[in-house]
Design brief:
Length: 495
């Protein structure tokens, strides 16, 4: 009863462990990789950046409104009058009447006889003497008023400008830059597509690598089980003295080698699962099972990819990227040429300043508006434009040559992938024939060894040949899938 309870507990643990594992198909792995893989994040960010640059470029033909404001605190004020002029104006009355005051005693002495003959003039002379000082004070006050009027007090200076600019003709630069950013956005999208294709190829390679190692693990376990049965039989034969100790040692060595092979396969399988998890954006310790890892035979696709070099030219991301890069360099050449053509723009603006001079000199914020046209054109720049256009044409030529070289390499790659696929199909056919013979050879060897008509060494050789035949069949089937994937990638048809 206790044994039954233990078995039920172990079975429950097995079920929980199995249910915790995720069973993934190849397409699910691809979808997860496209969604969660970290290597695509930079490419997607580049696409977003290029799209934003394209949208920003299309605003260059629209009117731009710009506001500028400034405030300054100066250490000294601007003075229109010198210190001497200020002093002269402030003492204008005093300076004018001071010579008259100095000669007043002489004038009174000269006016004495006149006042004796005409005493009625004495009152008038007294009024003139008393009014001279009032007149001097009035002139001094007027002069000081002029000095105060010219006091700028420019220690606090402020201003603002509102400028509206509407490009009219920029030498074709705006249209060329719009096209350039459009091509750049398309190029970023093609680069993302190329990164996705590379990721799909890596995912399929890792997927079938895991499937291959799972099959080889089962094969290694079956091989080890066969050797252990053989080891048990030889031990019985040694006891019966119909086999030697040396034969048993040979079998023991083969068993140890098989255990070591199984250990290596298990380690390789664990690392391959980690790689697949990393590509799919899963934690490395995630326990996943693949839908195809329990298959005895790895099924190949129903039909091989069809197409030639022209198909690759029409669909490969690299060709589209180089074509877009060639267009970009052509637009760069146009932009360089536009820098040396006339440029015309309409401008309108409103300026405000304090102090202002629109109504005398005032410490108030006053402004003015303006509307006009700007025109600029280089006259002589020592052939700078010619050299820049030459450099831009050279960049375009480099891209064209690179495109031709890439087309030749792609044509060679398509041919190589086609030959690789053909060879993989041949290997599958040969491995199936070899496997049938190896199975039959092992069956006959086991019967012969049981009847003691075949030596232990021959049985070991038959088992080794069986292991090699099964391993070659697995490798050949996986190679067909990988070759088909590589050919689709070469043709630009990988999805």
């Amino acid at each position: 009863m206790r044994r039954i309870a233990v078995l039920v507990g172990l079975f429950s643990i097995f079920l929980l462990h199995t249910s915790a594992q995720r069973v993934l198909t190849l397409q699910e792995c691809k979808d997860m990789a496209l969604t969660d893989n970290a290597s695509l994040a930079a490419a997607r960010a580049t696409v977003t950046m290029r799209a934003a640059e394209r949208d920003a470029a299309h605003t260059n033909s629209l009117p731009k409104l710009q506001l500028t404001a400034t405030y300054l605190r100066l250490g000294r004020s601007v003075s229109i009058l010198s210190d001497g002029q200020k002093d002269a104006l402030g003492n204008l009355g005093t300076n004018l009447l001071s010579p008259l005051a100095e000669r007043m005693p002489q004038l009174m002495e000269m006016a004495g006889p006149i006042l004796q003959r005409h005493p009625e003039l004495a009152g008038l002379l007294q009024r003139v003497q008393s009014g001279a000082q009032s007149f001097a004070d009035a002139l001094n006050s007027a002069g000081q008023g002029v000095v105060d009027a010219f006091n700028t007090d420019t220690r606090n200076v402020g201003g603002a400008a509102l400028l509206l600019t509407q490009p009219v003709y920029m030498g074709g630069k705006i249209r060329a830059y719009n096209r350039l950013t459009d091509y750049s956005a398309q190029l970023a999208a093609e680069q993302l597509r190329g990164a996705e294709e590379e990721l799909m190829l890596d995912v399929e390679t890792a997927y079938w690598q895991v499937v291959s190692l799972c099959a080889k693990k089962k094969l290694a376990e079956d091989y080890l089980e066969m050797l252990r049965h053989l080891e048990h039989d030889v031990e019985l034969m040694v006891r019966e003295e119909v086999a030697t100790r040396s034969q048993l040692l040979n079998v023991n060595v083969k068993v140890d080698d098989a255990e070591m092979t199984l250990l290596k396969v298990e380690d390789g399988l664990a690392l391959s699962r980690m790689l697949l998890c990393q590509l799919c954006g899963l934690p490395l310790n995630t326990e996943v099972r693949l839908a195809d890892e329990d298959l005895d035979d790895v099924a190949t696709a129903a039909s091989d990819p069809q197409g030639d070099a022209q198909t690759a030219y029409d669909h490969r991301s690299e060709i589209r990227q180089l074509n877009l890069a060639s267009n970009i360099y052509k637009e760069k050449e146009r932009i360089v040429a536009a820098d040396f053509r006339p440029q015309i723009a309409l401008v309108a603006g409103l300026t405000l300043s304090t102090p202002s001079l629109y109504n005398g000199f005032e410490r108030r914020l006053r402004g003015n508006w303006a509307v006009g046209v700007t025109f600029s054109m280089p006259i002589w720049s020592w052939h700078e434009g010619r050299y820049k256009r030459k450099a831009a044409r050279a960049e375009g030529l480099v891209t064209t040559l690179r495109l031709q070289d890439t087309q030749e390499k792609i044509a060679l790659q398509v041919s190589q992938c086609r030959y690789r696929l053909t060879e993989a199909h041949r290997r599958v056919n040969l491995s199936r024939h070899n496997l049938e013979r190896a199975d039959e050879n092992v069956r006959i060897a086991n019967l012969g060894h049981h009847e003691q008509v075949i030596t232990t060494s021959d049985v070991l050789q038959a088992h080794t040949a069986w292991l090699q035949a099964h391993s070659e069949k697995i490798d050949a089937q996986v190679e067909v899938r990988l070759a088909q994937t590589a050919l689709r990638k070469a043709l630009g048809l990988l999805d």
